[in-house]
Amino acid sequence: MRMAITPGIHILSVMNSDFPRTRDAHLGQLFCCLVSFLLLCSISALAHDHHAPPTRIITDEQVGPWTITVWAQQHMDTEMFFVKVRPSSGTTVPTVSDDLKIEIGVQPASQTSPETFYAASRESPDQYTAEAPFDSEKSWQIRIRLQSSRGVSETITYIGAAPPGSGEWQLLLYSLPFLSVVGLWLRVYWLRRGLKRSLALA
Amino acid sequence: MAATNPTLQGINSKLHSGASIHEKLNVQWHERALQLFMLVVLAHWAEHLAQAVQIWVLHWPRPKAGGVLGLWFPWLVTSEVLHYGYALIMLVGIWVLRKGFVGTSRKWWTVALIIQFWHHIEHLLLIGQATFHHNLFVSPVPASILQLVAPRVELHLFYNTIVFIPMIIGMYYHLFPAKQDAERALCTCAWQSRPAYTS
Question: What is the pTM of this model?
């Protein structure tokens, strides 16, 4: 039986400093500092969460005097659009002008309801952001309209419907940890029961 | 383990009188600490399960399906702090309790530690980008490395699953160790040791 030999092993292993205390203490201090620093940093990231990553829907397309790249990022029931703008090469515009306004027009690809426009706000000199209500299970037509003193230009693209989620598989996957822990518990239960029975017989 | 054996109790009390918390957590407190840790892990999974039930069984709209915590603290569910805090607890828990594992169980537990460490690095990258307002990979929002390879996968679920699998295998080998591993174990987790002391 293990109990017959373990006391000796206990003494030797622990006294042989399997856990060097000073190193532990230093590591502990270092880790506490690191965790405190990271938690402080995380406070500034309150707004960020686990959304799906943004997908590029337009890459370096020339729209009037501008070249744009557009990303779409799916949130719970909205879609965020990020538009990066730079003056097209060969144009006389040196930088993105201050009067540039961008609107995102959203309409079901089936055109069963009218197009709705959402104004994009300027996040940085070359990046605009807009948010639009969005049902990801439908296909959508997205119109990006750029408006400035140099005129109005626009482009259209489409976002396909997201494949339907497999709810049953997700439920099974989320249940897996509970099933495995129950499995472990049942094994212990059966082994104990068997042992009790054999002890009773003895 | 030694609680019902006077000889062992005496030896252990002398032995551990000056033991560090880390030592105790991996010897006489290992079983209880692991149970507590598993409780935290399962509570996290329970939140996800509740969320999945809200969406797929109760057919709630996705914005409303925030699990149980999300019903009272909707902001918490969408904040990075919750996810990052949990990733940290996981990393610290796996790391601190690792010494108590031996042999095969330690190998699997170490695999979980390595994956969780990488998961944590991914979170660190996200937080770093959000904190310093500088996004990597020409992305308009903070992005992690795995997102570049598998953009459509639900990363949080993916990471927690691939960390949990080696963890539970490690737990299995820890609870039901091979003979040579059982002889080297210092904690009371392996089920075989109990009847010997309680009978």
Answer: 0.69
